[in-house]
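Whiteboard transcription, Tuesday session. T.W. wrote the structure tokens on the left side:
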């Protein structure tokens, strides 16, 4: 039986995580990025995930070796997607860039390939607008860290069928939900409100970041507080989502607080830079 070939475009936090999970599930994976220095970094991060899995007894050495064999890096998008069964985009949250990319993907990928975007808030229909067959594109919104978080939002728009994406998400061991194409979908639209309000509380001196997070972790049984989660996701990513939702929905609770804008301006983007609302040593 032919193995499913998955091409992941974008080797950042989400991209390498999606690639890892796909390889772990038995798919052959090609991970690509137009930034040459990112691919070795992504491979190193996958190695760290494998080492951690083996150390905790979640993976055997044979499992780790199989993932290494199945997951390859490829410097060009065209070569990565040439005979792919599934193509997942996980690049910067910029509508124009995604539109250009999917116009290219549509030309170069097999006509039968499932085409998916990992956008966390942008309109799937708008991303697909540059395609000749916009109904080919579906949203598959994974969550960080991909190997831990079970949810995948499958986002549909006019003409886009969800079932194939739902089945693929389940193959990866995820729990898919189907959401209509609407700003912020379900998760970002709800989660960003909680995160931004936590930032406003921090600005106002209501409580420390640790205690605000602890209120939600212990009082509402959230596995992670909203400020720590923002550090995990990236403050720049959260800012982009908030700005988009504020512009499209026009509601004041989506307006980014001053503290978020200032931290992004200073380069305090969360865990990936070592500092956000918390200081990170790893």
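and on the right, the sequence the group agreed on:
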């Amino acid at each position: 039986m032919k193995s499913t070939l998955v091409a992941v475009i974008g080797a950042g936090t989400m991209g390498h995580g999606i690639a890892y999970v796909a390889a772990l599930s038995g798919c052959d994976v090609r991970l690509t990025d137009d930034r040459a220095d990112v691919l070795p970094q992504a491979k190193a991060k996958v190695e760290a995930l494998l080492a951690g899995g083996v150390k905790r007894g979640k993976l055997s050495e044979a499992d780790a070796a199989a993932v290494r064999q199945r997951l390859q890096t490829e410097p060009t998008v065209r070569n990565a997607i040439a005979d792919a069964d599934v193509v997942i985009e996980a690049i910067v949250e910029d509508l124009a860039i995604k539109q250009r990319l999917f116009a290219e993907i549509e030309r170069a990928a097999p006509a039968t390939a499932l085409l998916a975007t990992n956008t966390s808030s942008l309109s799937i229909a708008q991303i697909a607008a540059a395609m000749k067959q916009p109904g080919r594109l579906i949203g598959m919104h994974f969550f960080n860290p991909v190997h831990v978080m079970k949810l995948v939002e499958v986002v549909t728009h006019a003409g886009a069928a969800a079932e194939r994406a739902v089945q693929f998400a389940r193959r990866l061991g995820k729990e898919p939900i189907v959401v209509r194409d609407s700003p912020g979908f379900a998760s970002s639209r709800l989660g960003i409100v909680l995160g931004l309000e936590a930032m406003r509380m921090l600005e106002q001196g209501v409580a420390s970041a640790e205690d605000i997070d602890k209120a939600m972790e212990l009082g509402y049984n959230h596995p992670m507080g909203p400020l720590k989660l923002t550090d995990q996701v990236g403050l720049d990513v959260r800012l982009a989502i908030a700005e988009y939702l504020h512009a499209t929905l026009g509601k004041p609770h989506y307006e980014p607080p001053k503290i978020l804008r200032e931290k992004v301006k200073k380069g305090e983007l969360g865990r990936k830079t070592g500092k956000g609302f918390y200081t990170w040593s790893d």
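Someone added at the bottom: The mean pLDDT is 95.
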